[in-house]
Design a protein that fits this description.
The protein has three helices and no strands. The longest helix has 18 residues, at about 30-45. The chain has helices at about 30-45, 50-55, 60-75. The termini are far apart. With about 110 residues, it is mainly alpha-helical. It comes from Tanacetum cinerariifolium.
């Protein structure tokens, strides 16, 4: 009869355990939950925000906004100035779009 170590396992012989014994064992449920988090994270990276406020909730969109502003500045296509009194400001609408490469990656 195989020797069991109840500290690590109740039903399996020690020589059937794959991996390092000092690390905790993951159950199928834990692995399933980890996979769901991975799917959720992958899904979030492809969600396109509808508003500026929504975009500010994710660091990837904040970085994209900053890169766009830096490019405007580098190309000298705009200059930020104080708004003069009694002048109407032209509003701006950001459009958020996930761009895919030729392989379909983000």
């Amino acid at each position: 009869m195989p020797h069991h170590n109840s500290k690590w396992t109740k039903d399996h012989p020690m020589n059937n355990i794959i991996g390092q014994l000092y690390r905790p064992v993951s159950t199928q449920l834990q692995l399933h939950e980890q996979a769901l988090f991975c799917y959720y994270d992958a899904f979030l990276t492809s969600v396109e925000p509808k508003t500026y406020k929504e975009a500010l909730t994710q660091s990837c969109w904040i970085e994209a906004i900053q890169e766009e502003l830096n490019e405007f500045e580098r190309l000298e296509v705009w200059e930020l100035i104080p708004r003069p009194d009694q002048v109407m400001v032209i509003t701006l609408k950001w459009i958020y779009k996930v761009k895919l490469d030729e392989l379909g990656g983000i």
